[in-house]
Structures are given as C-alpha cells and as structure tokens.
Amino acid sequence: GAVVSQHPSWVICKSGTSVKIECRSLDFQATTMFWYRQFPKQSLMLMATSNEGSKATYEQGVEKDKFLINHASLTLSTLTVTSAHPEDSSFYICSAKRDSYLFSGNTIYFGEGSWLTVV
Amino acid sequence: GIQVEQSPPDLILQEGANSTLRCNFSDSVNNLQWFHQNPWGQLINLFYIPSGTKQNGRLSATTVATERYSLLYISSSQTTDSGVYFCAVGTGGFKTIFGAGTRLFVKA
After folding, report:
1. Most buried among A32, A44, B12, B58, by the most CB within 10 A?
2. pLDDT digits (tens, 9 = 90+) for B44-62
3. How far is A82 from A65, CA to CA, in rounded Å?
C-alpha cells in the first residue's frame, strides 16, 4: 500500500536554531504534499500546500519565513522551522497526494508525524 | 472554506458498549476519511468513505453525501479503542480539512 514516511519522529532543538523535517512518499509520486500542525489536545491545522517545483501555498496566519517548505522532487517535501522558539513546539504531520489519474479511491496518505520540542 | 463538525466532543464508554460518532460537513466533498489517533500521535486510517457504507470488524462507517454527514459506529468497544477519532474531508483542491475530533475513553 501507499506509504508516507516522516523523519525525524522526535526532535529536540535549542531556541534560535533551525530544524528540518522530511516527508517522503516511499512507493508513489506526489506532486502535491501538505503540512499540518497539531497543538496538544487540538485538531490538525493545515499549514501549507507543497507543490513540486514551485513555491508552497501557505494558509492564512502561517509565517512563510518561519516555516520554509521545499518540494524538490516528486517524493520529498521538507519543512524547516527557522529560528525555533518554544512556542514552535508541536506535532507536525504531512500528507501526500498520489499522482495517478488511473487510480480510483483514496489518494491522500498521511505520515507518522514528527514531535518537535524547542528548549 | 468548508466546515467540519464532529460530535460528541468527548465520550466515555464502558467496555463492551456501542457508540456512534458523527461528522457533519458544510459543502460537497470528494474525499472523506475517518482516523484514529493513538497516544503517540500516529494517525491510523480507518475508512476512506466519501459515500456509502463500509465495515471492518467492529467498526463500520456510513456517509450520506447528499445530506453532508458521516457516521462511525464502534461496536463492543474495547479499552484499546480509546483515543481521538477524526473525520477529515477533502474538496476539489485536495486539501484535507480535519474536524475537531471526538475524544473517546473506554473504561475496563
């Protein structure tokens, strides 16, 4: 089945540093990927839509310069949290939309998520 | 944008009881999924069900797209069913929007 992998699963970083989270589609191509953020005991909020070969589209209220998204290939999108602060600590999860016009049914697959703690 | 409402927000069950979780959405969708989020945060896909009815063991789901709601049924609940259940819908742009979730606790 379709698999989306995120790395790292857990990361602790110091305030002021940057941290990169990877989202890979392992067995399918994904022109479009999505990044979500989840605060404790809350739902998943869409941050941005990542498009291969072009700039990401950010949701209202999401700082583009804080959360850098790069979608350099059809199987990899990265989210970089720049100059991280404790308030950036959260659970980040990605999803990938399978590129297959011949495939019917579900085409959106989610990664396992990444826990970020900024100290 | 599309609104997704889930009810109830919290649910406590005795082991063995049945329950129904509801998801209402405000616009037409081309993708609807039910997820169970475990204590480690991992989203477990339960159903892809933009319309119709599906069953998987003790779980089943029904989506009535014309009336813009979906139901998730849990029968003979077990303590391992505890966690948060999310309904997530997608529209033509393939963005997936999540409801606020139903937090379920099953007591032994």
Report:
1. A44
2. 999 999 999 999 999 999 9
3. 8
